[in-house]
Structures are given as structure tokens and as C-alpha cells.
TrEMBL record:
HAMAP family: Prokaryotic_Ku. This is Non-homologous end joining protein Ku. Keywords: DNA damage, DNA recombination, DNA repair, DNA-binding. The gene is ku. SMART domains: Ku78 (SM00559). The lineage of its organism: Bacteria, Bacillati, Bacillota, Bacilli, Bacillales. Residues 256-325 are annotated as: Disordered. It comes from Paenibacillus barengoltzii J12. Residues 271-280 have a biased composition (Basic residues).
Length: 325
């Protein structure tokens, strides 16, 4: 890991030499702006619009615009002197409970490791904070920026998280269009709670992935390989009107599959089917046996079959009704 800061933790008269390492890394895929005509990357220059010339770093200072177009200038040495005392020390001001800090205050996390011969003092602070369950609120300056910070124990390591100052948090009263005096339907509230319960699970960070980054990496690999790219059209969004129906559909969607036991009632038809099949097979066997006996008997008496004379039926005499004519 790259060291981003070196200094000491100070609490009371105790100083703990430490090195700071970034605990997180940005996984965003970096892209450059390219000139479509020739394929060259676009370069950015520091240019003065008044003098119409490119400006070197040694000719640049920092300035604060106190009125439109009016600036007060600061040299690099002035700003460095302002933060010289704070840059090398993490001064713990108070110890508090972690649950007292709203997550909105947290910015970025760093790991702290003991530096030089500070191992004993480092371990002493770590175990004392672990046993008391407290975290330290401190002030720190990183790259000339002063910040509040929270020092806490993470497994066998001290971690420091920069946090916003209170005046950097915007008040909720500035948020527009927040609902006021809205009556929530009791049935909808009950179903919403049911949905939350069914979606509740222990936090497992490894199961969450950056779908956009994975899709972009796959797209880059396809383009590098020269494959033709075709993107599926985005699924049209539908406006949900019936909140109750949406809640019911959501609950049904997350319900686990239930294995049903057919029981004896479902087994009965199968039993009757087997009995019916057995009766049918027995009847067919009996019919086949009877047909065989008849055929055999006919063969034995084939030469002695008597001839029977059939007397013709007399013709029916018809009469005509003269009145019908």
C-alpha cells in the first residue's frame, strides 16, 4: 500500500507514531476524450484568456474571488505555513459511542499502522478503545485540507474516517417537495412491512457487484476483439398507479417456493386408476379366451353344418283409397 500521510496520534500526553494508508480504492474505469477525426487524445492546457498565452506552473498562484472579478492572492508558502502545525498530528479531542454519529457525516476511510518504534503505544490505544467500546473524535489535515475524523478499531487495526463538519451538512428543511400530513393506508403499510421483512437479510457485501462496470468491461473486451456490438433496447418504464397491487406483486415475487405434500387424498386416484387398468386387462383376457374357444368349436363342426331353408315372406297387398284421389 502507498503511504498517504505520516504523523502521530495524540491523546493526552501520549503520542503514537503512525502511517496512513487508503482503505478504499476507486474502481471506476477511466476514459479519455478522443478527437474523432484522427483518434488522438485531447490535451488540456493552462491558458490565460486575457494574455492569450499558455501558463507554466511556476507562474500560477492561488486566489479567492471576494467580488465578481476581484481576487486576493496567496502564495504556496502562506498556505503551507497555515497548516504546518496541524498536518503532522491527529489530535483526539473526545471519545464517543459510534452509534451517536449519523452515517451522513462519514467521508473516506484510512488504515493506520504503527510507525518506527510506536508498536507498543499503538497496541495500547487499540486495546483500550476496544475494551471501552469508544471511538475517538480527532482533527487532521490531509493535503492542506482540515477535517474532523473518527478513529475506531477494525479487527486488529486502527482506522480513521474523515467526517464532515456540522456546517457542511445541508439541513433537511432545504429539501423540496417533502410530503406533509399524508395519511398512509393501514393495509398498504402492513403489506409494505411484510415486504421489508421478506427482503431482510444479514449484510453480505460480497454479493453486491457493480453491474455498470462489469458491463462496460465486457463491452471494452468485445470492441478490442473486433466483435460487432449490439445493445438491447432499454425496457420501457411503467407508471405504477395501484400501490396495493404493486405491493402484493412484490411480496409474491420474493416468496420462496413452497413444496406441497399430495397426501393420501392425491394417492387415491392413482390407486383407482391401477384397479381400473387391472379390470380392463382381465376383461380383455377373458374376451380373447372366449374368442379362441369359439373359433376352435367352429373348426370342429365345419363339415356337419346343416342347411336351413328360408321360406320367402309373402308380399304385402296394398289398396288404394278412392277418396284420397
Amino acid at each position: 500500500m502507498h503511504t498517504v500521510w505520516k504523523g502521530a496520534i495524540s491523546f493526552g500526553l501520549v503520542h503514537v507514531p503512525v502511517k496512513m494508508f487508503s482503505a478504499t480504492e476507486d474502481k471506476d474505469i477511466s476514459m479519455k476524450y478522443i478527437h474523432k477525426v484522427c483518434g488522438s487524445p485531447i490535451s488540456y492546457v493552462r491558458r490565460c484568456p486575457a494574455c492569450d498565452v499558455d501558463v507554466n506552473w511556476e507562474d500560477i498562484s492561488r486566489g479567492y474571488e471576494y467580488e465578481k472579478g476581484k481576487y486576493v492572492l496567496f502564495e504556496k508558502e502562506e498556505l503551507e505555513q497555515l497548516s504546518a502545525n496541524a498536518e503532522k498530528t491527529i489530535k483526539i479531542i473526545d471519545f464517543v459511542d459510534l452509534k451517536e454519529i449519523d452515517p451522513i457525516y462519514f467521508q473516506k476511510t484510512y488504515y493506520l499502522a504503527p510507525d518506527q518504534a510506536g508498536g507498543n503505544a499503538y497496541q495500547l490505544l487499540l486495546e483500550a478503545m476496544r475494551d471501552t467500546g469508544k471511538i475517538g473524535i480527532a482533527k487532521i489535515a490531509i493535503r492542506s485540507k482540515s477535517s474532523l475524523a473518527a478513529i475506531r478499531v477494525m479487527e486488529g487495526c486502527l482506522a480513521i474516517e474523515t467526517i464532515f463538519y456540522p456546517d457542511e451538512i445541508r439541513p433537511i428543511s432545504q429539501v423540496p417537495n417533502l410530503p406533509e400530513n399524508v395519511q398512509v393506508n393501514d393495509k398498504e403499510l402492513t403489506m409494505a412491512k411484510m415486504l421489508i421483512e421478506q427482503l431482510s437479510t444479514p449484510f453480505e457485501p460480497e454479493k453486491y457487484t457493480d453491474d455498470y462496470r462489469e458491463g462496460l468491461l465486457h463491452l471494452i473486451e468485445q470492441k478490442v476483439a473486433g466483435e460487432e456490438i449490439s445493445l438491447a433496447p432499454a425496457k420501457p418504464e411503467t407508471n405504477v398507479i395501484d400501490l396495493m397491487a404493486a405491493l402484493q406483486a412484490s411480496i409474491e415475487a420474493v416468496k420462496p417456493p413452497v413444496a406441497t405434500d399430495p397426501g393420501p387424498a392425491a394417492a387415491a386416484p392413482a390407486k383407482r386408476t391401477r384397479k381400473t387398468a387391472a379390470k380392463k386387462a382381465k376383461a380383455e383376457d377373458e374376451a380373447a379366451s372366449a374368442a379362441g374357444k369359439t373359433k376352435k368349436a367352429g373348426a370342429d363342426h365345419e363339415t356337419v353344418t346343416p342347411t336351413v331353408a328360408v321360406k320367402p315372406k309373402p308380399k304385402r297387398r296394398t289398396t288404394t283409397n278412392p277418396e284420397a284421389k
